[in-house]
Every structure is written in structure tokens, then in C-alpha cells.
Amino acid sequence: MNTIAPFSLDFDLITGMCKSGRAKPTQRFVSNMVSQFNDRAAAEAIVRGGDQLLYEFYELSQIPETAGDLKFGTSILYPGKVGDEYFMTKGHFHTILDTGEVYYTLSGRGAMLMETPEGETSLVEMTPGSAVYVPPRWAHRTINTGGEPMVSFFVFRSDAGHDYGTIEQKGYRKLVVERDGKPVMIDNPRWA
Ligand code: MN
Questions:
Q1: How close is the Cα of 148 to the center of ligand 1, in Å?
Q2: Measured in angstroms, how far is the CA atom of residue 158 from the centroid of ligand 1?
Q3: Which residue in 119, 39, 130 sits closest to 81, CA to CA?
Q4: CA of 157 to the centre of ligand 1 (A)
Q5: Which residues pair with 137 in a beta bridge?
Q6: Three-state secondary structure along the chain?
Q7: If pLDDT is split at 50, 70 and 90, which confidence band does 192 have?
């Protein structure tokens, strides 16, 4: 059986970064998510202009993907918009749908957009010092509605897995866009 010894890992409270270098960042750029944004022309213009980093996350690949283990790490979502839609993560269901997750906000400001396969939707504000509970069965995506990086710390069951494909194909039922300088949730006109 694959096991791991007890250990601790450093994460900066403001930047989210693992300065010791023991957890490595995975980065996602606008070019990785052009089809996920409503205004694809705006996304393509950003890519043509040299691309932009949307988010990165630090996670340990060494943690075994078994039901009893937990994966944890930080996510750093940068501020910005594609058209009037705020920078966001890809979003996913867990491959094992019945597994939840916790996100604790360290710095910045934003929201967690969630939906179930049956079409329930929820938008929960994320501010420093608050923890969002993502229940089993809810797809989840973080959205940066502020002007600085939004940093959160996450923990989930290690064998849960990530189903990105469903969201990539269908999109979310809702979008979060800026209207009169404020974030507003609207229906996604592209939802399939
Ligand atoms: Mn997750």
C-alpha cells in the first residue's frame, strides 16, 4: 500500500506561494480557457496580445490518491476580466461526484460559483477569514471580483479526481459579469 509519512508544508498567507519549493505550481493562462469565456473575441485578443496568467495552484503530487488521504494546497486567482466576465478558474465536478471540498480564503475577494448536475446554482462570497463548503455533487469554480490576487487554501479527499470535461463541453448555467462596477450573476447564453 502506498503511504506517506507525516509532514508540514509552508504557504504564504498573502501570496499563497510555497516558498520552500516543495509544492510546485500549475499555471493556467487565458489561452488554456478561450472557449470557457462568453466573449471569445476578447479572450482571443488577450492571447494575441501575449496571453495572461489566470491562476495557479500549488499541490503535492506525492500524496497518494486513496480514499483516506487528503489533498491540500493553495490557489492564486489573478484579478482581471475577459470582456465583462471576471477572471475565473476552469471549474470542475469531482470524478467521484459524492466528494466535497473546503476552500478557506486567505487574501483577496471573490466568489465560489457552484452548480449541481440537476441545475441548482449557488454563488457564495469569498473574503479573507471565511471558509466555503462545497458539498458533494456540486461543480465549483472560483471567480476574482476584486482588484488583487484572490488566494484560497483547499482540502479534499485525495481520490476524488477532477472532471473538467463536463464543464468544458456544457459550460456553467450562470456567469458572473461586471455591471456598473459590481459583480452580477446572469444566465449563460452559451449554456448547452
Ligand atoms: Mn474540487
A1: 23
A2: 10
A3: 39
A4: 9
A5: none
A6: CCCCCCCCCCCCCCCCCCCCCCCEEEEEEHHHCHHHCCCHHHHHHHHHCCCCEEEEEEECCCCCCCCCCEEEEEEEECCCEECCEECECCCEECCCCCCCEEEEEEECCEEEEEECCCCCEEEEEECCCCEEEECCCCEEEEEECCCCCEEEEEEEECCCCCECHHHHHHCCCEEEEEECCEEEEEECCCCC
A7: confident
Q: How far is the CA of 114 from the centre of ligand 1 (A)?
A: 11
pTM for this structure? 0.96
Angle at 179 between CA 115 and CA 82, to 5 degrees: 70
Confidence of residue 1 (pLDDT cuts 50, 70, 90): low
Domains of the chain: 24-187 (2.60.120.10)
CA of 100 relative to ligand 1 center, distance in Å: 7
What is the residue type of 180?
D
